[in-house]
Amino acid sequence: MAEDKVVVEVIGVEPPCPKCKKTLEIVNEAVEELGVKDRVSVVKLDVSSPDVIAKYGMLMSPSLAVNGVVKVLGRVPSKEEVLRILREALGK
Amino acid sequence: MNPRAFLKMFIPLSLLVFSLGYFVYAKLTGFTLVKPMSIEVMKSYGPLFLPFLYIFYYLARAWSALLFAFLIAGFIGELVPKQVLLKYLSSARKSSYVLAALLSPLLTVCSCVMVPIFAGLIYGGAGIGPALAFLLTAPAANIMAIVLTADIISWKIALARLVSAIVIAIAIGYIISRTSIARRIEEAYRKRRMVTTRVEEEKPPIYERIWSSFKLSGFLAKTILPYVILGVGIVSYIQAYLPPQMVSTYLRGVTGILLGAIIGVPMYTPTLVEVILVDALKHLGMSPSAALAFLIGGPMTSIPSMMGVSRIVGWRIVLMYAILAVLGAIAAGITYHVLGDVW
To answer: Which of A60, A63, A64, A73 to mutate to test the interface with B (most CBs of B within 10 A)?
Structure first.
């Protein structure tokens, strides 16, 4: 199953606030660094949309979810942290 | 513990202790870094130098409060267990107005957090009342604003601001939840069950978390300070050139309270600048109760958050709460006036 795509959702406000932009930037850098662009899809979601709230409940921005599980809540993660989370999700 | 980890913990914590210590010491002894210069002397340097002098003396006076406010906001933003607070909040039912209002100052270091949680409460079916109580408490009662109000204006006004913001926010939430528009919105989301957020967060080591809280403080300072400094510069002209008779005619007594509550609505002052503006008007003769009305009415009706909220619950709710916020600010001003009207 390791070939399945990892879905990374960056959940922030629309229009994006500086912290959400920063989070997305860090995630993209981490994906780049691991060289796994083909195995990870990064999605940007709106934290205030009814769909996101129905799926995840109440969140704070920015949050980060990987394969449907919230990994970071209401803060900008460091790149090391994102790398760790990605490695775990990719199973390596 | 390696030296780097130690420094990452030591620098933010010692700055926090130092700024708090200095802040308290300066308050108790009246100690100042530089001897304050009166506005008349500053004026004599001409309008070109006036704002710079004003900013310089302001920073010399308020730097420890500002430093402490940014550091503590960073600590709260990073280290408060948000997951636990959110769990309490999402269990919020009709009775949880108080909970929503009290948690609000702890969760809302950055204003872009307010609207998402508001949306979460509405769409999750927690009810429009607690959602509004949450939304309206934060801007007038956030930790940075209260620290700065206590330092620059007075702790009595700061306390009055905190308490009345919470009371007014709860009252507005309750009143609006009784209207038919609000009932219709609540009906639409009642059937939804609040999803409890499933979070599997691995916490980085404590020194990393303290360091990130320090970085958050830096981020907040970088975002907010330029506006504060610009605001102080503009306020210098107000204090120097606005005729005191005008302030003491219009910003005192009942007229002062009414005007104080109302002028805050269209005038969007960036966060913290409202405190500095009030300080200048205080020197020109504004009454404490008018100041309180301004410090509550203005932030509650901030235009960016009204726009965000209107997308979720519509303009009629926003209009209602803005009117109620002004009335609440007036009521707070009058109560404070009756209680003694002291700085």
So the answer is: A60
Q: Residue A73 burial by CB count (10 A; 0-12/13-18/19+): exposed, middle or buried?
A: buried
Q: Which of A11, A20, A24, A31 is catalytic?
A: A20
Q: What's at B143, amino acid-wise?
A: I
User: The complex's ipTM?
Assistant: 0.76
A6 is annotated as an active-site residue: no
B79 → chain A, closest CA residue: A75
Domain membership flag for residue A10: yes
The CATH code of the domain that includes A34 is 3.40.30.10
- How many CB atoms within 10 Å of residue B203? 9
Q: Which of A55, A73, A85 sits opposite B199 (nearest CB)?
A: A73
Say what the pTM is: 0.84
Q: Name the residue range of residue A78's domain.
A: 6-85
Domain assignment present for residue A90? The answer is no
Q: What is the pLDDT of residues B104-162, one digit of tens each?
A: 877 766 556 778 888 888 887 778 888 899 889 888 888 888 889 998 999 999 999 99
Query: Which residue in this structure is represented by tokens 């309008």?
Result: B47
Residues 6+ apart with CB under 8 A from B16: B68, B71, B72, B75
B244-267 tens-digit pLDDT: 998 988 889 899 999 999 988 877
- How many domains does one find in chain A? 1
Which of B110, B121, B197 minimises the CB distance to A70?
B197
B204: which chain A residues are within 8 Å (Cβ-Cβ)?
A: 78, 81
In a domain, A54, yes or no: yes
Contact B265, B293 (CB under 8 A): no
Contact assignment for B308 to A48 by CB distance below 8 Å: yes
As a whole number of angstroms, the distance between CA B157 and CA B305 comes to 24
Element of type H or E holding A18? helix A18-34
Give the pairing of strands A40-46 and A6-12. Answer: parallel
Known active-site residue A20: yes
